[in-house]
Amino acid sequence: MTASHVPYGTVNPTAYSQGRLAARQFALEHDFEETSFCEIPVQWGEQDANNHLNNVVFARYCEAGRLAYIRSLASSLDPAVSKNILGSGKGTGLILAGVSIAYERPVFAPDTVLVAHKHSEVGPKKILLESMIYSFSQQARVAHGTAAMVAFDYEAQKSSTLPTEVVQLLREKEREREGKTEGMTGGKAKL
C-alpha cells in the first residue's frame, strides 16, 4: 500500500496495512458481509476526557456500517424497493428499533477501525443485525453489538411486513453462508 492510500494521521503505513489485513481476515472468518465493510479513521476529537474513543462514537460507527450494509442489500433489489429501503420516507422501509453495543477495549487516536455487519435473523417484520468493530492498531475486535431493524410503512406511519424481495435476498445470503461453512467442515463443497 502506498503512502497516498493510507489515511491522514496514520503513524506507520506498514502497521496500518497489517492491521487492515488482520481486520478483513477476522471479519470474513466470522461471516461478516464484505459489502458491509466500512473503514473509519478515528479522529482525535472523538476521544473523551479519558483520552479514549467516546462510547457514543461507537454507536455512530455502527450506524455508518449499518447504512453500508443496507446500501449493499439495496443494490441487489428492484429500484422501487431499493429506494424505500434506502430511506425515501415513503412506502415500506426500515426503521431502527433497538441497538446494543458491548465495549471490549478502549480505542485511541490515531487509529482506523473496520466496522462490519451481517444479519443473524430475518422474520416477516424484522431483521436482526450483528455488528463488530475491529481496531487496526490493536489488531483486535474492540466492540460488538446487535441492531433490530423493523419494517415500517412511512405513509401509514405504522409497522409493516418486509418486502418479499428483501426476505428472499437475506434467505439466499443465509444459504450461501451455510454452504461456505459446510465446505469448510467436510460437508459438500460448493464450487
UniProtKB/TrEMBL annotation:
It comes from the Eukaryota. CDD domains: 4HBT (cd00586). InterPro entries: 4-hydroxybenzoyl-CoA_TE, HotDog_dom_sf. One of its GO terms (molecular function) is fatty acyl-CoA hydrolase activity. This is HotDog domain-containing protein.
